[in-house]
């Protein structure tokens, strides 16, 4: 009997013969494919006997004849509909048949079941039918978890609607179905939140609290469509809440999650829901900070939308594959029977495309087998392979930077990069070609230097091994333990140079080619410690040239360089035809003149673009923020104001001076500096400029006391505090990389505010002549206070114990301890006498300690105060208090050094190449802080834009000779009375205790002074107590 006849008179017990017929003759020849509609009708019959026979046959075919899967699934709707039958046997058989279809269907065909399931969920259906339809999701979760996850964007909205149903059975079934769906999201970051997300669907009042918990989730794993399908309904509720804080949290979560979306097409179904809600909030939220956070999320989603629109073709499209199968099978327009199996195969294929199952064996097993009974195995396999190849082409996303040339590909890898606990790049691709120069862009802390170090250290997953592609990291920092080596020996000692067996003669030749000659500014046999920053960079480039790199990794190659040497670097880079360069630089001219491609770090991804910086900026205008001095981001630095100096009433009065100074480095015959005469005051704004090696940094080191001139005088006001950030700024912290920035500053100023860094200077070390004077007895005149008798004794001062006072002649006297005495003598000697005795440097040290302590009094050295100070200098508290300095980027380390120098509220700030390592946003903030700083500023820089905006006076250094230019009298025009400055009236310590701070004492006139003397004498005579100010005055005037 044919199956057509059998289905007409189907009865319970016929199911076995139906399965046997299909297995013997196949779905087509047996007639099953053509007559499945008849079976479907039996299943839906109101006659219990017919229905029971149909349902049992469906269950038997689903379980026993998998080749009929494309047709038997068409009966699912009828099976689900019988859940409301009056007969208990029919209900049971219907449930078993529906579950058998779902359990045995090809896992990749799950999506084809959804329309029939969803059709049974509307409220118009009987509750038993709706409950039965919801229960199948538990089976689907077991047999096809990843495929169900792929379908969640469609499933979640349908099931969510049922969770509000009035029938408790439907409500319970939908909740369990949603729980099953949540079990396949595959995202460990939010797995622990599933119960909360479920709660938010049915209890809207809990949304703000759940959003708060969600905001605390650290997203690390790639975010795919299943996770988005679960979280988006919650986020939409959060965006529609009344509370601004909840709206803000929703925007933060959206921003964070969207950065981890690897395939933008995964986000496509949700963007039409989220974007309008976000845009509405961005225009309506009153709070500026929350609005800016929301705008950031809007921009991130728009970027994602652009990418998903571009990738729209990569999502599996059933209609496209239907045509491809018809073409491959050469069947023309398929009839209804063949069309059903082709469509079934297309659904399977598109799901495999979406989930990345693209191997030929996978397609042969899951797709080719569907055509059994229609075509022989060979033809079915060949057609399937043709379609698979076309599907692979559909999945290819053309790169923006695909070159037309045939340059050799050095690298094409996909990787994730983290530093400590911070993810910098996530599942991103990098492609490099030989002979191209790539400009690497990104803000401070985005991971530029870390990426280059990881490449150089062979730590990037998928990057070619060092044996295949040689990479060299070029940086100008010289390790302290090698600073004594000559330039030739320094390069020769490099491990890579040693490994390549490069002779020392070749090293000397390469150095000569970049300017290291006996008669040049930089000599090959002089110590590297004598080199200026510009020559250190050229030294690093020379070392890289010797290593014959395939890829040069250049971190700020124009740092420290003057215009002449910048041009040299540009010419060198452009001359490299077979070498690839990756360049990190804030020099827009370099990136325009040398770069053929741009790599931009955005939202944990590495974006590639063909063209130089200007061309990149045309399509990405926001990138200009990296190269504009003043940023619109609102980032600000704030320096502590210096406060008054005793005896200085005018901002134009000199606090530092150099007069007639010459200086020659040890081993050099020719002086580096000649007859230098400068002065700096509170109102100074000086730019010190000149070629590399002209002597700028050397002059500054003399001014701050790090070196001592052979001739001439260097003077500093005894009460002035000086902050100095050296050109090679990291030397300040290289011995403390195991400390956090907060710990470092508290260590540095722990001894009552004394700066441990400032006490280690050449100008503070006694010379042999001074030591001899100190040991020579000196005749000192003593006056007996009672008798007035004057006597003379020869004494030797053992040390200055730290006290200082002003005598009647308004000169400083210093407390001393004489040799042979075991206790402080309590006696003071005038500065003039101590200078003759060889104690001038010791007096300067006492002055420095007193000046530094006066700065500490205003702000106690607590963790909280240091944290706030670091934030004022641009370093977030996360990095300032919780990260060790070894984990910080170059830009962050510069901020640490700057903050440490500014802690004790200096009167003069001296910055040697402050623009190195800082991005333009930070430079703009630094410029703003300098503009509002009440102290003097001296800046050495090759960044004209930076110095011209701040400095009306210029010191031009040329081959050791100094010429002053510009408005040198500007400081005189700023002759503001210091008395007019706002005085600090109170101080708060770490525990919150408030202490009143005395303002500057008003200077008494002679008449007022006489009256006060008379008043104090009367009080002393009458035995009355003096107040603190009177007591101080009495001691000062020797009345006590």
Unreliable residue runs: 968-1000
| Mass-distribution shape | elongated
Largest sheet composition: 6 strands, mixed
Terminal CA distance reads 133 Å
Record the strand order, biggest sheet. 4-5-6-3-7-8
How many distinct beta strands?
24
How many alpha or pi helices?
44
Instruction: Give the overall average pLDDT.
Output: 81
Q: Which oligomerization state do the chains in this entry correspond to?
A: single chain
- The assigned structural class equals alpha/beta
Helix content: 40-55%
Residue share in β-strands: 5-15%
Radius of gyration: 40 Å
List keywords for this structure.
1040 residues, 6-stranded mixed sheet, 24 strands, 46% helix
Report on the architecture of this protein.
The chain has 44 helices and 24 strands. With 1040 residues, it is of the alpha/beta class. The strands form seven sheets. A six-stranded mixed beta sheet has the order 4-5-6-3-7-8, with helices on both faces. A hairpin with an 8-residue loop joins strand 17 and strand 18. Helix 33 crosses helix 37. The longest helix has 23 residues. It starts with a helix and ends with a helix.
Topology:
Blueprint: H1 3-8, H2 15-29, H3 32-44, H4 48-64, H5 69-72, H6 76-81, H7 88-104, H8 114-118, H9 127-143, H10 145-162, H11 168-182, H12 188-191, H13 194-202, H14 207-215, H15 225-240, H16 244-258, H17 264-267, H18 271-284, H19 288-310, H20 318-329, H21 336-355, H22 360-366, H23 377-395, E1 409-419, E2 422-433, E3 437-441, H24 448-456, E4 471-474, H25 487-492, H26 495-499, H27 504-513, H28 533-546, E5 551-555, H29 563-574, E6 580-584, H30 588-594, E7 597-602, E8 605-610, H31 613-619, E9 654-663, E10 673-681, E11 685-690, H32 696-704, E12 711-716, E13 722-725, H33 741-748, H34 768-775, E14 778-783, E15 790-795, E16 797-806, E17 812-818, E18 827-830, H35 831-836, H36 840-858, H37 863-872, H38 877-882, H39 890-902, E19 908-912, H40 920-932, E20 936-940, H41 944-950, E21 953-958, E22 961-966, H42 970-973, E23 986-988, E24 994-996, H43 1006-1021, H44 1028-1036
Parallel strand pairs: 3-6, 3-7, 4-5, 5-6, 11-20, 11-21, 13-19, 19-20
Antiparallel strand pairs: 1-2, 7-8, 9-10, 9-12, 14-15, 16-17, 17-18, 21-22, 23-24
